[in-house]
Amino acid sequence: MKNIYAVLDIGSATLKFLVAEISNINVNVLFVKTIPSHGVKKGIIEDDRILTRDIRKVIDEAETFLETKITSVALTIPTIKAKLYQSDSSVSLSETGSKITSDDIVRVLRLSSKFKRSKDEEVVSIIPVRYHSDKGATIEAPIGEVSRNLIVDSLVITTSKELLYPYISVVEKCGIEVLDITINAFACAKEAFDAVYLQEGAVLIDMGYKTSTVSFYKDGYLQYLTVCQVGGYDFTRNIAQNMQISMNQAEAYKIKYGSLDVTKGQNDIIHTTVVEGQKRDYTQQDLADLLNETAYEVMNKIKEKIDVIDNGGKYETLIVGGGGELERLDTIASEVLECPVRIYRPETIGARDMSLVASIGMIYYLLERKQIVGEYTPSLVLPDITSTMSIRFKGLTKSTPKNQSGKVSKLLDTFFSED
């Protein structure tokens, strides 16, 4: 049975759905779709009915394209309510030692969640960072090693129950199970960062529509998370206000002409506004000037958040997310943040879009998790053994809030039951 998984990334502006096959360490994209999302504001679900309709719409399209039934999705949720904890737990295997199994690791990870936290918090992910056995410390799961004890240093990520449960519920209302969950920031890191970045220190800026998430990684841990109330919306709003046009038209200009390079097509007129009989022409240079001004404002607000990290140390920084899709944004960011900054775009064929970093990262998250917790049941089964290759080539041409019940309890109990 092929390892094929579906990922759902629900944002305030867009909904991303990706289906991919894991082959060894490669990710082969079989289907990907981005559509506008409705019913979500700043990461909080306000209308689950309309959001359920959007999710069902994109799943139906994927099922038609792949000619099969999708039964589960891996879900990335917003970072806005997330909290981080470092934990370590241990279990005794035997006095003489026995071989470490994945069940032993799961048992230790469950123990890692047993700490005092607020009643409103729910554990989302427990990520093992370092293992300690009789042979010493390692970042690789020591499955099969003989040891008398097993200690695991782990990162525990929690979020608000009021945020988490509606996300799970809205997926299940579509008749789909939730395969696994993590926060958007951590999923992005699984795609954008390698082990060196995670150890030596790096910053990730995920620019969304109205908010941007700043996360800091060092010593293998996600150590700092914060949300800044700026994003792609700020650029669109400034265009709309200055040119006196609608937000939809401003967004269209930003997508078509959006560049921070004031020398590109500087005299080309892109819009004319008439106010009280007076005409005003706007050129590409006018647009670039507006975008430049906004970029400095946005990055200075983000800098205020980054300056508190690790006593103000300067770390290489990556920008991901659909809100960062502006040419030369990394140049201005480097100037403002006073550190190396680069725009990160996935290299996976069929998904080379900044807004898909979290979706691709979630696939790698599943790949790592199954080494620890065992195989996941695939999200779908293709009709025949030749479908994967044919679909891959076809795909390249296409562009209950506070109460757990049913499958919600089952999902959350996978790691965090008392047993």
UniProtKB/TrEMBL annotation:
Stored InterPro entries: ATPase_NBD, Cell_div_FtsA, FtsA/MreB, SHS2_FtsA
Keywords in alphabetical order, please: Cell cycle, Cell division, Cell membrane, Membrane
A Pfam family found in this protein is: FtsA
Which biological processes are named by the entry's GO terms? cell division
The residues covered by the SHS2 domain are: 5-192
Q: Does the keyword Cell membrane apply?
A: yes
Which SUPFAM superfamilies does its entry note? Actin-like ATPase domain
Q: Which GO terms describe its cellular component?
A: cell division site; cytoplasmic side of plasma membrane
Entry similarity comment: Belongs to the FtsA/MreB family.
Q: What does this protein do?
A: Cell division protein that is involved in the assembly of the Z ring. May serve as a membrane anchor for the Z ring.
Q: How does it assemble?
A: Interacts with FtsZ.
What protein name does the entry list? Cell division protein FtsA
Q: Which organism is it from?
A: Thomasclavelia cocleata
